[in-house]
Amino acid sequence: MTPGFATTDETALPVHIIEADALEGWVASQPAPVQTWVQAAGFKAAIGRSLLIPGADGAPEAVLVGYGTAAQRKRARFHLAAAVSGLPGGAYRIASGLPADRAEEEALGWLMAGYVFDRYRVQTAPAARLVAPEGVDAAKLEVIAAGEFLTRDLINTPASDMGPVALEAACAALAGQHGAHIEVIRGEALLAQNFPMIHAVGRASDQAPRLIDLRWGDSGPTLTLVGKGVCFDTGGLDLKPAAGMGLMKKDMGGAATVLGLAHMIMALGLKLRLRVLIPAVENAVAGNAFRPQDILTSRKGLTVEVNNTDAEGRLVLADALAYGAEAAPNLMLSMATLTGAARVAMGPDLAPFFTDDDTVAAELSDAATAVADPVWRMPFWEPYEADIEPGIADLDNAPKGGFGGAITAALFLRRFAGEGVRYTHFDIYGWQPVAAPARPKGGVGMGARALLQALPGLLGI
């Protein structure tokens, strides 16, 4: 599915965006037939409500879309998108009422409202298409929406069709689309090339574990994106209960999100050198699965005591981060559906991130607000470092106690990110549990648009 705006040469129905407290004045300014129609329809200008206005011949000549109250708008994003599914097919243009500082958000929301996941069942996307508002970079928004759609498609696809082999194929397709270079280290070659923890986590699956390495760009600062690609997580020998396993097709949401972001970066031609590292595995159960109390030696040489095989994401990320740090990139980011603790702290809508760099934190926070992609800074709280040091090995992958789980996981990853490398970690959810404007229930990108907005400032491009 390719998101796109309507073209300006199409006949487009004018859209009047009406705030709740401005409805009475707008109606009073209209001809008597329009006043009668709006009053008879009981239109209240609530978010998500729309009303077609007929012309003299009975055909629609305009549409009203509710914009609610200021208080209601603070509690939601992409307000116009809430009305898209209720509009008949055709082209629409904004005629009045859209604040200039919200035009980009609302136009993108309209595009993203057109997403459906139709791989397994015929579904019809909303047919109302928007002419890009004046002053909006339509081509850029179409690229951003396409990156988001890629992320959603990857997450929504079940593990039967999105295991390590299929995830590699998706990376190869993206590389081919943008002329990027891709290398993949698979199976026993992981041991030969010193990626022991990626191998250990994925070796019990019928699909060999692998490290996918995508590179693009030949000039500019270097950016390395590391995405957790656990295509399904049974929990390993510390088996998850059924309730905990139900959404584990989304445990490769970090990989899906960095691939969506990578598409945005490459399609927009940002002046940087991009590297994407994805450890792609299935945490399966078999006789050769890694075990509780095993001690693994990482690529960096640090030893790790496995106190829970269900804390596998940080193990595969650790080897990938160590590898990425060896090239000393200007900026390295990891994205992972890593901890339930992050969901307890932030819920499903906020993407927590960890960084030691106040400049990175400020840039990300400002960017997130600008593009309606909320993130929230969490601390690398150093007093908790002792919690990830079990004594028998250098590190513990699952500290006892349960407190500060998102923080201890982030501290674990930081040990592998390299001295002197600017490093930021996102602990995302990657799933929309209840449908919201521009975000149907299912897989969703988190933090990618904020990062895209922040990259020019972070990398000086």
TrEMBL record:
Keywords: Aminopeptidase, Hydrolase, Manganese, Protease. Residues 308-315 form the Cytosol aminopeptidase domain. CDD domains: Peptidase_M17. GO terms for biological process: proteolysis. The keyword Hydrolase applies. Belongs to the peptidase M17 family. This is Leucyl aminopeptidase.
